[in-house]
Amino acid sequence: MRFGVLGVLSVWTDDGRPVRIPELKVRTLLAELLIHDDGPVPADKLADDLWPDRLPADPAASLQVRVSQLRRALEEAEPGGRALVAHQPPGYLLRATSVDSRRFLDLTARARATPAPRTRAELLSDALDLWRGPALADFADAHFARAAIAGLESARLAALEDQAEVRLALGDHAALTTELAALLDRHPLRERLWAAYLLALYRSGRQGDALDHFRRMRALFAAELGVDPGPPLAELHAAMLSQDPSLEVAAETRTRTNLPAPVAGLVGREHMVADIRDLLTRSRLVTLHGVGGVGKTRLVLAVCAPAPAGSAEVWMIELAGAAPGASPEEVAELVAATLGVRDDASAGTAADRVADSLRGRRALLILDNCEHVVEAAAELAELLLSRAPQLTILTTTREPLGLAGETVVPVPPLDGPSAVELFTTRAGLRLTPADAEPVQAVCARLDGIPLALELAATRARTMPVHELAARLDDRFRLLGTGRRGGPARQQTLRATIDWSWHLLGPPEQTVLRRLAVHADGCAPDAAGHVCAGGEVRAEDVPDLLGRLVGRSLVVLSGGRYRLLESVAAYCAERLAEAGESDEVRLRHARWHVDLAERAAPRLHGHDQRAWLKILDAESADIRAALETLVGLGEADLAHRLVGAVAWYWYLRGRLGEARRAVAAALSLDPAREGMVAVWRAALELFAGSAVEEQPEVVSADGEWLLAFAQWGFGDQDVVGRRLGRALAAFLEAGDAWGEAAVLMCRARSGFSGDMAGRRRDAERAHALFRAAGDRWGQLKSTEILGTLAEVVGDYDLAARLHRDALGAAEELGLWTELSFRLSALGRIAMLKGDLAEAGRLHERAGRLADEQANQAAMEFAQVGLGLVARRQGHYDLAEERLRPWAEWWRRLGGTDGLAFVLAERGFAAEQRGNLPAARDLHREGLAVALGTGDARAVALAFEGLAGVHALGGDPRRAAELLGAAAAARESAGAPLPAGERADVDRISAAAQVDDGFAASYSRGHASPRAEVAERELGLS
């Protein structure tokens, strides 16, 4: 992992992906650790710097929370990242192996130790390219960072002075005058900068200006410092007055070149510059390969200024002006004209003359924009390299030359942060929180292509950035003007893509425009199916795709062919012009229907994980396929697609997407019944919404799905009957997965009766799911076994089973299940007395549930936080957490959940002394519990009412209720476990009875359970 402090604090994975470090305190912690990367930072210093105004009540614990957040962010970005943050007395340290400041200091030290001017210049350029802005720019006002920032900025200035001196030694004085003048505006008292500036002016033929600036500098030093310039400046002044020949640059260090000076700085390519320079020392033919507008030419200018080591000459030949398909001789004539080679037919062809001219010269030849003359450029390059042994060639092209020995360097689009930096810099924007999201959207939708970003930046100077982002659907009109001074093919976004399009043959154009129907790339088999037809045979598609990849119009990434968004928009226009849009989109949709139907049965077996990933990759295209089918009125295909993909959406927790898709399919034929209609009802229940009208169910799959979705909601007798019918049908059909699914539901819902029966169902379901290879089913049955272990008080077993289920959820990427399992582990932590851990787990579960917009998972997490709050003595907070979920359960008709939440609210009311509220809540909870038939729910209500009577002065009534509760729990095979005894123990103490008295009193005096309940409810 790479860390950056030379600019805004940044972190990247080894492959260059940016790592998000959340929250200012966590970023502050990281900045502090990076500043002191030579050893551990004491914990008390870290706490003081994180909370400079007021320390928290427990600084060590608060610091540990931030350390954990930092470790988690690094681990999520790259496996093993957690270990980078280590505890080492007296505090913490960061085991970072790649920090840009460390590399900067290493490069500058190596430069100062290197005698060769060109090598020293390269090292200094590499070092300074690492800077992305002021050091730790986002911590400029932080007290703890000031010394480090000052040290780094001082080192940067020294490196700039070193660089100026070595560039002067290499004869690069003209370009230096402007740069040094700007530096002196910011640092007017730096003597080395003044010396370099004066010498640059002198060598540029501006001796009068040099002497005039010396006088101004001397006056400034006298006014500000009260001193004269030091001896080096005085000696330079005398040498300029006498026009000392020693001030001239040595001829042997000058580089002959025609390279233009870059108009603007390079952004986001710093590491590439160093890598390409290194390649040029090892390879004689290097090709920068990338899509139009990606910045290949700008990168060349950065690589070659100053000239790479070993090059006495650097010449750039712009080939864009050559006619497409020009001959090698015509390209050679362009090279000859640039090099000044005499036009003498008697000396042979132009290629021969150029080769003879370059023989024995240490030269770097840049062939810029070769794609439209790639064959001629390749032939000429091969000839020149064979006859000029000290020649190196660097090319830029959208299609490599394809020569032996060619080193191809892909030039990718800019990553997110670099794209934002380029756009805001060129637009002159100061990025505010309000602009951050639209700016990121602009950069993402323009694919990080520098040309497109610069065109958009021009428009951003005249319109708000959020409006610019909103208008990118019409990007070719929006970015059709605004960039002057470049070649015509780069003055608009359309012109850039037109240039590449017109270099393609008809079959390549056909495949390219048809690829535009894919929303998020495509696998090779999809490309072959969708792009074939007419003049393009299916067997030719792979070769045509390969050629399009080679020409930088198609990107092959992760086994999928992708178009950049701007190229896709262009090709969609071309597809419409060809009159193929509906035909190709329908072909695309049919392919995805077939794919979904192939995937559906495999989501229940050994290939579950692999097919989840396949459908993950195709998700955007499945949405696009459904949109096509709805738009074209293809009801049958739309129902087939939705019916096949619905289980995938459920597993991934994408309930909103699934509900929208089902509604869209049913809109084509509202009266249609079948599994799509069943899924509509099931998805409403999964999402926590009531279902007014039950669909007609004609299959075992439908019966099971509705029963599974209705657990805890509505009439549980109906659920039981559904499960019975489904089980009979599955057994008759020999459907082991269906049998397991029913047993899992029955074990979860308690339809099999006692605890032992539920455990047998769960164990049988787990065995069947394991035999089928269904990891989701194993996860769900493990979850139930964990819950059953919790009920009987075996918390260690319960925790182990829930952790097993948690691992399965993480492995499959089932984030909703992950939320449920975190909450379950939070319950176990609470029952074992670790309330802090219980709160942390429930909060994390709640965040995941919120991300998935899953109300059931949110209820489990929020109710868990309510339980924790009550056990911490925060009774008002507990009521605040619990009340909304009682209303939610009432709305859905969820009796089991409602009985539990009412009991918890009743206990909270009783503990804060509000006996009337506690009595009402527990009575309502008892009425609901009696309707569930769950003896444990009835027992909990009895225990709550016992508390009300104990505090109300009726200990015998309390004792009878406690005895009735104990009997109810024993009848269910689930006596009250240790972790749930706190309320009963508290109430027993208030009633001044013990368990034995309560039990004996209940046996001797109490009426049957139903009569006890009736009396409490005022029914007798």
Automatic annotation (TrEMBL):
Read off the PROSITE patterns from this record.
OMPR_PHOB
Q: Short name of one Pfam family for this protein?
A: BTAD
Q: Which GO terms describe its molecular function?
A: DNA binding
Write down the DNA-binding region ranges.
1-96
Positions of region (Disordered): 1000-1020
Q: Where is the composition biased (Basic and acidic residues)?
A: 1011-1020
**Similarity field:** Belongs to the AfsR/DnrI/RedD regulatory family.
According to UniProt, the name of this protein is Putative ATPase/DNA-binding SARP family transcriptional activator
